[in-house]
Design a protein that fits this description.
The complex is a heterodimer of chains A (about 210) and B (about 150). With about 210 residues, chain A is an alpha/beta fold. In chain A, about 40% of the residues lie in helices and about 10% in strands. Chain A has a domain of about 140 residues. In chain A, helix 3 packs across helix 6. Chain B has a domain of about 100 residues: Nucleotidyltransferase, domain 5, CATH 3.30.420.270. Classes of the chains: A alpha/beta (about 210), B alpha/beta (about 150).
Chain lengths: ~210, ~150
């Protein structure tokens, strides 16, 4: 009896670390850290066959046209363009033009941030650009033969331009604006303050069928 | 000299008793973050880069559609659509979306998001065909998957 009491009953645990290492390496190798990021978009609803499509009677000056053909050549406002990163500033300039001199526009300008107001008063108010942010429409048209990379690149710039306008207005960066949590009342308030009076009017037209 | 001798007699072992604990901690981290691939990707996926990325809020509401050139050369060189584990025709998308919607509760059905993972060499034609099908089944929230571009 005395003998058995003295016997050690430890389980050898020297290999524990090795086993854990093995598992660790397995999970290290199989892990793909989820990268579900991208450009969100809401598609327009399916047109109702019983309802006639409305006649669009918008002034040319209120439409900012971006066309891409099947060989990926870009036409912005009927001028060829090579560098798509320029589209961002052009869109911002177009949306914040306030060509119309009415009271509504004046109120909207007063609600902008200081830097934006200076920008509008110094460079905006051109008669040949958009009347107000509410009227401004960015029209983006591609061909079926346009490559997806170009399409996404331009969409990125257009969306980025709007996000920067909204962000600037409430003193955030474009990224901070995008990451606002709309379920939180305080952040939702900031969000609607940024969006108010400046709708994101981006029209993505049905592509032409030349490049197929 | 006697000073040095004294020092040499101290033990030089690093205590390794906490090593398994540390390894286990790492192990649990990777176990928790690991998402095992649910489907094999049959089409090429070189995801384009963009700057203005939105994050997906709820993964359970997301379904994936992959578009790209088939990896196997006997499937042809034209871009194809992959859902789940198969290459499909655009007409099969409606059925797929309805199946995915059935997995969700009544309230969540309208919030279903389709993540389009499209290869950068694909032409717009096939992407538009997919979007047309999504409009038909009223799955209008889409996300063009992209990776973050660092340059400025």
């Amino acid at each position: 009896m005395a003998k058995s009491k003295n016997r050690k009953v430890d389980i050898p645990s020297a290999s524990l670390a090795d086993i854990a290492f093995l598992l660790l390496i397995f999970f290290l190798v199989t892990t793909t850290i989820a990268s579900d990021k991208g450009i969100a978009l809401l598609l327009p609803p399916k047109p109702d066959p019983n309802v006639e499509p409305p006649d669009i009677t918008k002034n040319q000056r209120n439409i900012f046209k971006v066309n891409v053909n099947s060989s990926d050549r870009i036409l912005v406002e009927d001028e060829p363009l090579q560098d798509i990163s320029k589209i961002r500033d052009m869109v911002k300039e177009f949306v914040l033009n306030f060509g119309d001199q009415n009271q509504e526009n004046q109120d909207l300008i007063n609600s902008l941030s200081g830097a934006q107001r200076n920008f509008v008063l110094s460079q905006g108010r051109k008669p040949d650009s958009s009347d107000s942010p509410g009227d401004a429409v960015v029209s983006f048209k591609t061909d079926r033969g346009t490559s997806y990379e170009i399409y996404l690149g331009i969409l990125d710039e257009i969306m980025g331009a709007y996000d920067e306008i909204y962000g600037d207005r409430v003193g955030l960066t474009a990224e901070e604006f995008r990451n606002l949590d709309k379920s939180d009342p305080a952040q939702n308030d900031v969000y609607s303050r940024a969006r108010e009076g400046i709708p994101r009017n981006v029209s993505i037209a049905e592509p032409t069928k030349i490049g197929e | 000299m006697s000073k040095f001798k004294k020092k040499a007699s101290t033990s030089q072992d690093i205590p390794t008793a906490s090593l398994p604990d540390i390894i286990f901690m790492l192990l649990f981290f990777f176990m928790v973050t690991t998402v095992l691939r649910e489907s094999d990707i049959l089409v090429e996926q070189k995801i384009p880069a963009a700057k203005e990325l939105n994050k997906l809020e709820r993964k359970s509401l997301v379904s994936y559609i992959y578009i790209g050139k088939p990896k196997q050369s006997d499937m042809g060189a034209e871009p194809r659509i992959q859902i789940n584990d198969r290459l499909v025709q655009p007409t099969d998308i409606q059925k797929f979306v309805n199946e995915e919607k059935d997995k969700l509760t009544e309230v969540e059905r309208d919030q279903i998001t389709m993540a389009l993972k499209v290869d950068r060499d694909v032409k717009m034609g096939i992407v538009v065909d997919v979007q047309q099908e999504l409009k038909e089944v009223n799955a209008r929230k889409i996300l063009y998957s992209a990776i973050k571009r660092i340059d400025r």
